[in-house]
Amino acid sequence: MGKSLLQSVAKGLLGRFLAYGTLAAGFLLLYRGFQAGSLGAGVPFGLGGGAAILIGMYLMVSVRRGEPSMAPLESLDLDNEEDGAGDPFDRSNQGG
User: Fold this and answer.
1) Which of 15, 27, 54, 69 has the fewest CB within 10 Å, making it most exposed?
2) Percent of the chain, pLDDT > 90?
């Protein structure tokens, strides 16, 4: 039990640090690409930054997907749908 808990915490923390680092590096490369003096020097930085941002976002989602959900699904009442009558903002049947 202790080893799996330690592995879970380590995977979550390391995964998040890796994802945040990749995002930060991507935005830094993108910034460097915009700040480059010539077009030829800025394009590789921009492409690398864009790719790093996408990879960082993928890492964040994959780390988050591996965690168990915090809200139990039994407590959600998904069958309590109204017929759509009334105000769509506050779901009241009062007019005006």
Assistant:
1) 69
2) 35
> Cβ–Cβ contacts within 10 Å for residue 52, how many?
20
Dump pLDDT digits (tens) for 41-80. 889 999 999 999 999 999 999 887 766 666 665 655 556 5
Give the domain extent around 43: 23-65
Q: 30 exposed, middle or buried (CB, 10 Å; 0-12, 13-18, 19+)?
A: buried
> Is 17 inside a domain boundary?
no
Closest CA to 82 of 91, 90, 74: 91
User: Number of structural domains, the chain?
Assistant: 1
> pTM higher than 0.85, yes or no?
no
